[in-house]
Amino acid sequence: DQLRISPRGTYLAWRERTTSTKNPEGSSEGSGGGGGVLNLWIQHRLPKLGHPRQITFEKDRDICVHFRFTSDDKTILYLRETKNGSETYHLYAIDMSGDDDNDDYNDDNNKNENPPKPRDLITDPKMTCAMGFVGPLHLWSVRNKPRHILTSTSRGAGKLSLFWDVSLINIDTAERETIMRNDLSTWYGLIRFIVLSFLSIILKWITGGRWKINPPQATVMWFPDLEGNIRGRVRVAITDLSSSFSVLSSPTNGKWKTIHCIPWEEMNFTLVGSLGGTGLARVDFTPDGKYVDVHACHISVEKDTTSYERFDIITGERLKTLAHNTTSDITGFVCNPQTSAVEIVMHDYEKPTMECIITEDEDNHKHEKDDKKSGDVKSSSSSLLRLELKSLSVAFPNMSVYIINRTLNDDIWVIYGEGDVGQVVCGGSPCGYFIYERHNVKNTSANPMPITVVQKQQEQQQQGPSLFMFCSPRPELAKYQLGPMAPVHITARDGEDILCYLSTPPPSTPNTGALVLIIHGGPQTRDYWCYEPLCQLLCNRGMSVLRVNYRGSTGFGTKFLRKGLNGTVFTGVQDDIEDAALHAISNGWAKRDRIAIFGGSFGGYCALHAMTFKPNLYCCAVAICPVTVVGAAESAGSFYGSPLVKQYKRKLWGDEVFSNEAAARAVSPIFHVSNIARPVMLVHGEDDPRVPMSHSDRVIDDLKRRSKEKGNHCLSGCEYITFADEGHGVRKEKNILYMYDKVEQFLCRQLDLPVVANLEECWTHGNSATIRDMD
Questions:
Q1: 3-state DSSP call for residue 687?
Q2: Given phi > 0 = left and psi -120 to 50 = alpha, else beta, which region is 174?
Q3: What's the whole-number average pLDDT of the chain?
Q4: Which residue has the higher pLDDT, 600 or 134?
Q5: Fewest 10 Å CB contacts: which of 131, 368, 427, 445?
């Protein structure tokens, strides 16, 4: 969401990273000030085109993880961590206008010398909102209340940030009203929940499972209707992680009705997400009040992937499937800007695709003719959308197309187009943000219909639909050859099909036979076909890159995901990674002695697992914020000790590793450092709330001790870098550039490639890195 258009079309807003930031006082900050920090910018569209204006002036870290306009176009809201890496978020507001007649961001208003300052709408410093450990983004506009916003809130920013209340916040005054309270937010509710949970466990144990009471469930997701009434929820039982969707048939009916239940064995993590704000569970209420549409899983034995289902809101009966794909879970939704009804869903198997929702109109009148004499076929919004999607796919050949947002009257869309290499429509760069103006869009005999590509923003409307590239996030790449990325399938040793993505050096760069396996974290997430900066960096240096969607990755259905749980993360997942490396060798993608492995978080665990348990397959490893100790061997709390996360880890690691310290130590790389025979590079954020940096400290200390005791010169190339004011990962641009500069040099040295000189200091000056002593 780098670029968004305001609902009424008045403004465009985007986040921009600049090498020099000019603050409101007029002085310029060099690379040590605001350089490299994402700030918010806006541009007038109505009543006339204006000049870009910077409206935030952060110097130390990026302005936000998410932003949006209010429905009246008067305010930008954005979500930001209170401290970098803390995973505690507050909601901020920037007013676009002081009153209707005096626009503070009008080009005629003295060049915006004193713009309004951001206001924190969360006045309690101990409160977090909108985004937790996992789950969707809980931030909703309210119809007929443009100066209010609904968001999830929790004062337990840590243990209880999965168990949300819902608050209605006045954007002008920051007054907050709790309109829905979680059972676990009160002492009475918490105690009752704990007692009932223990009773369900004890009764099941005493009777051997013959008698049981359903364990209590706690709400982890809320969903409003169009008027802002909370009428949908997802609840989870801590004892067995079973979950349920329930709804209120009307705002005045206080009795919740369960319409969909999911046992843990059938849960699909596409609904939950791997990080805060990434979950795709939905409960949508139709405007007529008759139905509720749910993004669900485990609807039937035949449906392994997630689907979008319609239920009768009174009886709870499932009526029909609105969208489903047999090879891919639903990975995104595009809603009508006026009704909020889902019109388009996205799937992503090898590459992203879009599918229109079947409407009631099409069901009833699919082949009906308006005028039998003229033979005109009745048009529907879905058929028109299908025509447009097909036309857009022609306008963006060999690219992924994403609809970012739409104006209220639906005449303008913001579109993001992305390829793996440079694209003509993007001016030679791999990606771009486009303004799609839907003038005179209608069903025509032309299939696809023509879309005019214009070279600059138009104040005068075109005769037909038009595309204008507003900006490319990476225009400087237009002058470079990039390495193509291709989906490839690898058959694992047990016959499982593993989708991977292979990036190879561009034609201008010799292929050296060096290859880097990049292993994604999660483990419940996945890799995609896209422009990937790290892949391009390594390809430019002569390395191929193979990214592996090992079993347990999300997006490919429940069965594939389940194969990566219950302890198989230590066996089957690691076998998939090894099989991918061996496949690369046998197919000539890499030479046996020139393969490196790279990963962050759980991907970092995989990298160190490979170096400790398969020490002769890889010549080196890079691990960023790696998990190094698991299960019963882990002394630190699981994400602030959240009981829900602890139960999830039991299901992930398996009962034996979770409960038996000896079993946990057997699969924890931190206890097998003595097996490492090749160089490793560790990177860690000093304020990591998920994986303590002390774990990486211990790995390095053991490596240093072993190197001294046994004189192992193979370990002399090990490196360890930590970053102050960074959490679970590295986010600040100066630190990112510094880190990948060092990663690139490390990999080039270990893979026997020419080492590029250090990045110019102007790019990394002011970074917070500490290179730890390895002597």
A1: coil
A2: left
A3: 87
A4: 600
A5: 445
**Burial class for 136, CB neighbours closer than 10 Å (0-12, 13-18, 19+):** buried
Q: Report the amino acid identity of residue 177.
A: E
Three-state secondary structure call for residue 295: strand
Strand partners, 622: 598, 681
Tokens 């993590």 identify what position?
Answer: 269
Task: Compute the distance between CA of residue 366 and CA of residue 359 in angstroms, rounded to an integer.
Answer: 10
631 neighbors 687 (Cβ within 8 angstroms): no
Contact between 619 and 594 under an 8 Å Cβ cutoff? The reply is yes
110-119, 241-250, 591-600, 625-634: which range is least confident on average? 110-119
pLDDT tens digits, 83-131: 887 888 999 999 986 444 445 555 544 455 667 889 999 999 989 999 8
Using CA of residue 679, residue 684, residue 690, residue 694, what is the dihedral sign?
positive
**Positive or negative CA dihedral for 700, 701, 704, 709?**
negative
pLDDT at 378 over 50: no
Length of the chain, in residues = 775
- Cβ–Cβ < 8 Å for 688, 600: no
Q: Phi/psi class of residue 300: alpha, beta or left (left: φ > 0; alpha: ψ in -120 to 50)?
A: beta
User: How far is 56 from 92, CA to CA, in rounded Å?
Assistant: 11
pTM exceeds 0.85, yes or no: yes
Report the alpha-carbon distance of residue 101 to residue 241 in Å, rounded.
54
319: left (phi over 0), alpha (psi -120 to 50) or beta: alpha
Instruction: Tell me the pairing of strands 719-723 and 680-685.
Output: parallel
**Residue 46: CB atoms within 10 Å:** 13
Res. 370 pLDDT band, cuts 50 70 90: very low
Side by side, the strands of the sheet bearing 342-348 are 330-335, 342-348, 352-356
Q: Work out whether the CA dihedral 439, 440, 443, 446 comes out positive or negative.
A: negative
